[in-house]
Amino acid sequence: MKKFIAILMFSSLAHGTCLGPKDFLVLGDSQTGATWAKSYFGNFLQECLRGDFIIFGKGGSNPSSWYGRGNLPNVEIIKRDSNNPHQNLGLESGLPLCQKRVNQMIDEYQPKKILFFFGDNMIASSDDDIKKEMNGLLSVIADKKIKKEDCYFLTPTYEMEVKSKRNVSRKNLANTTRISKNILQTIQEKCQHLDGLEIMKDSPFFDGKELLRRVLIQGRPGCGGAAENDNIHICGEAAKDLAEKVCQKLNS
């Protein structure tokens, strides 16, 4: 009897932790949520979304990290919601499914709109592997009967300018364009494509060629110092601009 009560209490606590529904569910990689992030896309997206939202980010992740059995067991998951601007949930081994698997997230939060932001971690992937990643995610979308008008997929944008040496050589305009093309070909009529390159081509922080200017925001660390040679993570004013442009689309 005591064992049954303990199981019931654990189940209730887990459910309470994941209690929905939400207006927005956002899922992404380190651009959306990382332990060190202070001035990234996810930091600013939470400030401009209207309504009740929940955001999950995991450094190094791809879509497959969030469905099936997942992967990256040693990377912590970051959660953001209306009450928690940056909550480190820890490793996925100790988390309920509705904080680490997209299937259960959709069931629990019953979001009106979903945003996915992946792609930069596929820079070493073949075209076939990119499509395989996406097809796994799209099968979940189809199974949950998510309508195209309620589903958004943001693809990577330009790389950040650096002080001296680019720390991720594969992150370049050609590779980013290739990834976006493969994602677009795969999602077709199942999800709306938000092209990160197209969104930022008229940004005041775009150099007009292939880089986003590194402009720090006062009081928002994480875009200078040791990060100055980080060409893959959008930060500072450029990250804020990208988030606000995406919010305009989601909030409409």
Q: Please indicate the percent range of residues in DSSP E strands (runs of 2 or more).
A: 15-25%
Rg to the nearest angstrom? 18 Å
- Helical residue percent band: 25-40%
Largest sheet descriptor: 7 strands, mixed
Number of helices: 7
> What best-fitting shape do the alpha-carbon axes yield?
globular
Query: Largest sheet, order of strands side by side?
Result: 4-3-2-1-5-6-8
Provide mean pLDDT, rounded. Answer: 93
Q: pLDDT under 50 segments (min length 5)?
A: 1-15
The N- and C-terminal alpha carbons lie at a distance of 52 Å
- Number of DSSP E strands: 9
In N-to-C order, the SSE pattern is: HEHEEEHEHEEHEHEH
Structural class: alpha/beta
Describe the structure.
- With 252 residues, this protein is α/β, with parallel strands linked by helices.
- 34% of the residues lie in helices and 15% in strands.
- It has seven helices and nine strands.
- The chain has helices spanning 2-17, 41-48, 102-109, 127-143, 173-187, 196-200, 236-251, and strands at residues 24-28, 53-58, 77-81, 87-90, 113-117, 151-155, 159-160, 192-195, 211-212.
- Strands 4-3-2-1-5-6-8 form a seven-stranded mixed sheet. It has a two-stranded parallel ribbon with strand order 7-9.
- α2 (41-48) packs parallel to α7 (236-251) and α4 packs parallel to α5.
- Mean pLDDT is 93; it is low at 1-15.
